[in-house]
Amino acid sequence: MAKSCKGLAEELVKCLSDSICVKDEKRSIRDCAGEKSPCIPSECVGLRETYFNCKRGQVDMRARIRGNKGY
């Protein structure tokens, strides 16, 4: 279960590294991931929310018994 969100994390990093925020503005991926900026594509925003829900599911006791939905 610890690695159930790994695929989402890799896709989120890839999406953010291809965004304008990282390429043109020369900012770090971490800085761009925490913002709600118009230069971040909606696909990356959706991946970020899905990744957050996946990580939250890892600490939810009900989800821990059933297993995380994963990716």
Automatic annotation (TrEMBL):
Q: Name one Pfam family in it.
A: Pet191_N
The UniProt keyword set, sorted, is: Disulfide bond
Does the record carry Disulfide bond as a key word? Answer: yes
Family membership, please give it.
Belongs to the PET191 family.
The protein's name:
Cytochrome c oxidase assembly factor 5 isoform X1
